[in-house]
Automatic annotation (TrEMBL):
This is Replication protein A 70 kDa DNA-binding subunit B/D first OB fold domain-containing protein. Residues 6-107 form the Replication protein A 70 kDa DNA-binding subunit B/D first OB fold domain. InterPro entries: NA-bd_OB-fold, RFA1B/D_OB_1st. Transmembrane segments: none annotated.
Length: 506
């Protein structure tokens, strides 16, 4: 039997022989109430550099998986091919191989001219926009890691809590791209890859989904995503010569902290009146989430509406009057030589029947409220005058919203910590929660709307029945409410789950 090149394999064939190298193998896990594995998947590459996906069904996993070693060369017979998946294809090939317990693997030792170790189908960042929401084939990218956000937990709209990690990469032209990793892949990147980052700053992410978020193209992991730090590929040489500065360190982006409260929690969390907000002791509720419904009646115009933010931590940059340089208050960042990011910071006057109060809305939460990014207003539309509030901001006057607050760390002029707005909700979200139908957009809003404020605050921390004091939390009540919450959410938003798995995790 002669050896068939991978490129000549067609769907629905058997009785063929191939000589290949296993260049990738992974075990996809689907996100369900109980984790389920989906067998073993490999990428086989042959001497001509062509790749094909080969799979082992879960039922054969225990018997077949030990025969396949990553990176090794094999001669394989007694396999069959089928038509490759119509969506989420990992490598471009019309056929896919199935291996089972009858498959014969002859391991090839002392291979004279080894087959390439990796086979990626790397996409240029500029070509990614054509792949937005195109699920037929998944995307591989190579980049230089510039920043990452530590691992955090996100409440997904179906109530499940999922691990998430964001990595920022750039290409040779310094174009930036955000990659969001979910689940186990996020955990493993955080614990393994990042430890190696002092030496390895180049990364290939395979099998990503391309999406659009707030006018940006963003990437997110799928169950087939694998991460290769500093892979031995030709393309890396250019990156190495381009980014050869040894002191080029990876920036840590602050956690998105403000996990916005989930719709179901929003419903069950006791709401305070504006009058009650005024008499909260900030020192006693530093780490709790506070909910109140109020109308935006005025703006505090004394401090303008935006500031120049540090690209790494979003803190407000100060100008060194002697040198005219912009300096981040975080000594690790110091003098900023990159272009600062325009960042919203708007003072709102909020009122309800009981009283009025003032609160500050910053960054992503503000972008959510004003439905425009600060960058777009300042850079693209040219609004920069601090005294002149743009229409996008002014038009929220008179709007009644449900606000999620926390207290800031800095004492304001009135010797009282600022009330910061973490999240803004309108009646639509509440209705959605009760009708148990979440649209994909709302799911995205919940999962992808981080607000880069400072400290980690659990939104689960302030769920109290109407007659308990809102700020008193014991560990027992915390646990109980957390369990109740999980149950309530799981039973009420079941319908959204399947849709969400496809939209966020596939
Ligand atoms: Zn900074």
């Amino acid at each position: 039997m002669s050896i068939v090149p991978i490129r000549d394999l067609e769907p629905f064939q058997s009785g063929k022989k191939i000589q290949i190298r296993v260049c990738r193998k992974w075990r996809p896990k689907i996100f369900r109430l109980v984790d389920q594995f989906m067998g073993l998947h490999c990428i086989f590459v042959d001497a001509m550099g062509d790749a094909i996906e080969a799979s082992v069904k879960e039922v054969d996993y225990d018997l077949v998986a030990p025969k396949i070693e990553d990176g090794c060369h094999y001669e394989i017979t007694y396999f069959y091919t089928v038509k490759s998946k119509s969506s989420f294809q990992v490598v471009p090939h019309p056929a896919q191989i199935y291996l089972n317990t009858r498959t014969v693997f002859k391991k090839l030792l002392n291979v004279h001219s080894p087959i390439q170790r990796h086979r990626f189908y790397l996409q240029d960042f500029d070509s990614l926009s054509s792949r937005i929401d195109n699920d037929s084939i998944l995307t591989d990218v190579l980049g230089h890691i510039t920043a990452m956000q530590p691992l955090e937990e996100k409440i997904i709209a179906d109530g499940r809590i999922e691990k998430k990690c964001e990595i920022y990469i750039e290409n040779l032209r310094k174009k930036a791209m955000r990659v969001t990793l979910w689940g186990d892949i996020a955990t493993s990147f955080n614990s393994n890859a990042f430890n190696e980052l002092t030496s390895a700053k180049f990364v290939v992410f395979t099998s990503l989904k391309v999406k659009k978020y707030e006018d940006n193209t963003v990437l997110s992991s799928t169950i087939s995503t694998m991460i290769f730090m500093n892979p031995d590929i030709l393309e890396l040489e250019q990156y190495k010569s381009m980014f050869n500065n040894p002191i080029d360190t990876i920036k840590m982006v602050p956690a998105s902290t403000t996990q916005q409260i989930a719709p179901q929690q929003l419903k069950t969390t006791k709401r305070l009146s504006v009058g009650e907000l005024n008499i909260l002791d900030p020192d006693k509720c530093k780490d709790v989430t506070i909910i109140s419904r109020a109308t935006i009646t005025r703006f505090d115009t004394h401090n303008g509406w935006w500031y120049k933010a540090c690209p790494s931590c979003y803190k407000q940059l100060k100008t060194n009057l002697q040198t005219d340089q912009l300096v981040c208050p975080n000594p690790k960042h110091g003098v900023i030589d990159q272009i600062p990011i325009p960042w919203f910071k708007v003072g709102l006057i909020l009122e309800d029947a009981s009283d009025q109060t003032n609160a500050i809305i910053i960054g992503r939460s503000a972008e959510q409220l004003f439905k425009i990014s600060c960058r777009e207003l300042v850079v693209e539309k040219g609004f920069a005058n601090q005294q002149e509030f743009p229409e996008a901001i002014l038009r929220v006057k008179g709007q009644c919203k449900v606000f999620q607050f926390r207290f800031g760390n800095m004492k304001s002029n009135f010797n009282r910590s600022d009330l910061l707005i973490q999240g803004v909700f309108d009646d639509k979200v509440e209705l959605l929660a009760s009708s148990s139908e979440l649209t994909e957009l709302d799911a995205k809003m919940l999962t992808l709307a981080p607000s880069p404020l400072s400290k980690q605050v659990s939104p689960l921390d302030l769920i109290a029945s109407p007659d308990t004091p809102p700020i008193k939390i014991t560990s027992i009540s915390k646990k109980r409410t957390r369990d109740d919450m999980t149950r309530a959410i799981l039973s009420s938003i079941k319908k959204a789950r399947r849709k969400l798995e496809r939209s966020v995790f596939m």
